[in-house]
Write a structure and sequence with these properties.
The structure is a homodimer.
Chain A: H1 7-25, H2 32-39, H3 43-49, H4 53-73, H5 81-92, H6 97-112, H7 120-142, H8 147-170, H9 177-190
């Protein structure tokens, strides 16, 4: 009897195969052929789920956004906005192996979208979702301050987060979870 | 009579041809062949200056670092450390077309070095030089504070800078020089 495969589960496995190829060989090598080989499937089987490399990449990138959103939605309610900010920001930063993988995939997409316009809408969506999340955190923490100040502080927190994420990918030996947490704590002190 | 070509000038032109290929097509397309075509030279002429793609890429990346260092060295002396910090940070951020080009080349190298170990020493050198510059700025501004506080603030300024640079590459319409300057000014206020 053939094994029954849950299509959602299979698509998740395929996206993870895309992630592995991107992290090991680079995004331009994440072709339908290479991903099928990585996942141990025939090209025909893979095409049952994804018709093109574009679809495969888009799914793998959406999975980064969805995982982060799911983790944030699953956080326990927090009456203290400072504590909530710390927990949300920790979900956005590469604090463990799973989030390191997401972060490296995101960095590869960010750079690749500069020369591949088809990737830009999803990359920009990720950018805007993160900016909106930063604005909400600043708004909740800053209290009654002028609108312009909230926007500057949202830009600042957003840039800080993405800079920490890039540094954690580039120099994981120096930019450890402990150092990221210390920087975030210091930043929230000033808000 | 054949035109006399200054070799330093020719190498600079070639590095700029590398930059154009990287920004238009992506770093993996910056082969000796494509760069020779971009520069209007034969492969043989180009090989007179650079023997391999690796040498060509390394030179193009070193030119980013050297240009930034030269501009900072050329700044007028500033008795006020806050004013000096603003001027140095402005040289590091993509505030005009020249610095936007440097920034996009840097982003492409940053991502590519994740999967191409040959590029890592130079990328890490750029990372460390920028970190040291941030530490100096924090040290000059912060006065008599504990060593650990200087390190956290140096990590923070470094991450902020690289985050702003990534955002300027990704969304230049939103992340304008004016907004970067406002974020930097607000950050220096807190130091």
């Amino acid at each position: 009897m053939p094994k029954v495969v849950d299509p959602a589960e299979r698509r998740r496995e395929l996206a993870e195969a895309v992630w592995r190829v991107i992290r090991r060989d680079g995004l331009e090598h994440a072709s339908v052929r290479n991903v099928a080989r990585e996942a141990g499937l025939s090209m025909g089987s893979l095409r049952h789920y994804f018709e093109s490399q574009g679809e495969l990449l888009a799914f793998a990138l959406r999975m980064v956004i969805e995982r982060i959103e799911r983790r944030i939605a699953a956080l326990e309610p927090q009456p203290d906005p400072r504590r909530r900010a710390e927990l949300v920001l920790a979900e956005l930063l590469p604090m463990d192996a799973e989030r390191q993988a997401e972060n490296e995939v995101w960095l590869a997409f960010t750079a690749r979208a500069q020369v591949d316009p088809a990737l830009r809408p999803l990359r920009d969506q990720g950018h805007d979702v993160l900016r909106a999340g930063c604005r909400r955190i600043v708004h909740d923490l800053a209290g009654d301050v002028p609108e312009a100040e909230i926007e500057v502080q949202a830009d600042r927190l957003h840039a800080l987060l993405d800079g920490l994420a890039v540094h954690a990918a580039v120099r994981p030996d120096l930019n450890t979870p402990e150092r990221m947490a210390a920087v975030i704590a210091r930043h929230l002190d000033d808000l």
